[in-house]
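GIY-YIG protein
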Amino acid sequence: MFKLGFNGGVYFWLNTQNGKMYIGSSLNLSKRLANYWETSPRCTSIIRSALLKYGHESFVLIVVFLNSALVIVG
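Structure:
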């Protein structure tokens, strides 16, 4: 496993069984991605449902880091 710290960025999950892709973003990738391994029934996102249905082993996770110095807010 890799350490993301509090870096924000964009990520996507690719389902290797059906080719479907889920794209997401977060200001805290470490926290967001950790949520995908929780078994809490209150999380009902499309990707969580797919992860539970097909299993994590059926997905490839690709993370693209964003340099916060390049992000313009306003």
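The chain has two helices and three strands.
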